[in-house]
Amino acid sequence: MAVVGIDPGLKGAVAVLGDQVDVIDMPTRGKEIDGLSLAAYLSRVSPGLAVVEKVHSMPKQGVRSTFTFGKGVGVVLGVLQALKIPWVEVSPQAWQKAVLWGVPGEGKARSLLWARKIFPGVPLETPRGRKLDGRADALALAWYGVSEEIDIC
């Protein structure tokens, strides 16, 4: 069974662990998540489970950006529901504790270090050197889904 990890957000990503490893940046259209492209991708990879990072607003985050972010998460969950893909939402603290145990560092750098070690063939930087931490987080979320015993209702 393929498991998909989803780091929601415009700079997030979608990672699939199954017979093969595949990672894409979150499909967007302008400054919104492109639900049609996301649905087409998920239909192609046909996961049995999606693990979505459970997100919330952050202190000092503006009202507009909070609303936009929440709307994007709603698109992701709506696509999963429409495609009848079971999902669980997992807090960053839970998946980081389970997956990144023993990895030095903090924050996004820690996820990138872990992903480089476990998935050396997956591009985690743009050609200009910008770190693609959404990909690392999506891979870790999918890994969490594969390694943890998750009941699918």
Tell me the Rg in angstroms: 15 Å
Number of domain units: 1
The CATH architecture can be named as: 2-Layer Sandwich
Task: Identify the strand order in the major beta sheet.
Answer: 3-2-1-6-7
Written as H for each helix and E for each strand, in order along the chain, the element string is EEEEEHEHEHHH
GO molecular function, one term: nucleic acid binding
Organism: Dethiosulfovibrio peptidovorans DSM 11002
Protein name: Holliday junction resolvase RuvC
InterPro entries: MOC1-like (IPR045290), RNaseH-like_sf (IPR012337), RNaseH_sf (IPR036397)
What this model shows, in words?
Helix 1 (35-45) runs parallel beside helix 2, helix 3 (92-99) packs across helix 5 and helix 4 packs across helix 5 (133-147). Strands 3-2-1-6-7 form a 5-stranded mixed β-sheet. The chain has a two-stranded antiparallel ribbon with strand order 4-5. The chain is built from 5 helices and 7 strands, in the order βββββαβαβααα. The protein is globular and about 35 Å long. It has 153 residues and is α/β, with parallel strands linked by helices. A hairpin with a 2-residue loop joins strand 4 and strand 5 (32-33). The chain has a single domain, classed as 2-Layer Sandwich (Nucleotidyltransferase, domain 5). The mean pLDDT is 91.
